[in-house]
Amino acid sequence: MPNIIEITDFAAPDLDIYARLTEGQLLNRHEPDKGIFIAESPKVIERALDAGCVPISMLMEKKHVESQAREIIRRCGDIPVYAAEFDVLTQLTGFHLTRGMLCAMYRPPLPGTEEICAGARRIAVLENVMNPTNVGAIFRSAAALNMDGILLTSACSNPLYRRAIRVSMGTVFQIPWTFLDSRLSWPREGMGFLHELGFVTAAMALNDDSVSIDDSGLMSEEKLAIILGTEGDGLAAGTIAGCDYTVRIPMSHGVDSLNVAAASAVAFWQLGRR
After folding, report:
1. Lowest CB count within 10 Å: 74, 191, 205, 218, which one?
2. What pLDDT does 95 receive?
3. What confidence tens digit (pLDDT) does each residue in 3-54 have?
4. Residue 235: CB partners within 8 Å, gap ≥ 6?
5. Whole-number pLDDT of residue 219
């Protein structure tokens, strides 16, 4: 039986996890096995459940309990389901973007780098991409456009931040990903590790010696790691120097570059075809 708990006061302690804890507190860096993330909207919650994520509690508009949330509540088992009227929930910043439903879940353990790369032919590597909106958009494109997995350097925004999950439309639960092994320095050791696994590395950067993204040699590589850099500065010089290819996207009208999320979609579409 579902455990429905009606909330009438936004200050109720039961809402702390949704309304007052920061992303850092939810992440719980000191005890990562106790970390939590918040999934927003029915579609994203369903994708997280499909991926095996374990729910803790739910928060939703009262009218959804017996309608669009009914099957999700059944799947979640006997967890607290906090229900409130819309006027109470609108005090929660961004609630209008959640389609009336949120679910707190335990963060799943991350796989190892080798596990992500095993059997993969096309992977994306994100270097210091710190904007969660961009991370979410890149994940959505990677899942849609034939990437087999994603690796992130330690300075990247966590893909399980609420905004990243929301922008990704839950694809963070569909495409394999992990942070690069902290024992490997980046770029030297991390790049060397990818080469040992048989990956050819391609830096998305605007250098004089860059090849076009439709280069026949590039597209024919058996295993390719597509490396994308941070907003603004792009990839570090050491990263570009260590890559097998430097790749540019041809542009018109004097435009010199694309946002990293837009560039990733172009790169994945072109280089993910096989």
Report:
1. 74
2. 63
3. 899 988 878 887 888 888 888 888 875 576 779 999 998 999 999 999 999 9
4. 127, 203, 204, 205, 227, 228, 229
5. 94
271: its two tokens:
């280089």
Q: Which long-range contacts (CB under 8 A, 24 or more apart) does 86-95 make?
A: 86/61, 88/7, 88/8, 88/9, 88/10, 89/59, 89/61, 91/10, 91/19, 92/10, 92/15, 92/18, 92/19, 93/19
Report pLDDT for 84: 86
DSSP 196-263: HTT-EEEEE---TTPEETT-HHHHT-SSEEEEE-BTTTBS-HHHHHHSSEEEE----TT-----HHHH
Nearest Cα to Cα of residue 233 among 263, 211, 205, 264:
205
Domain tally, the chain: 2
Name the pLDDT band for 81 (thresholds 50, 70, 90).
very high
In CATH, what number is assigned to the domain containing residue 48? 3.30.1330.30
Instruction: Give the whole-angstrom CA distance, residue 229 versus residue 96.
Output: 32
Tokens representing residue 60 in the block: 């939703």
Kindly report the pTM of this predicted structure: 0.93
Could you say which of 106, 129, 153 is where a domain stops?
106
Cα 153 from chain centroid?
13
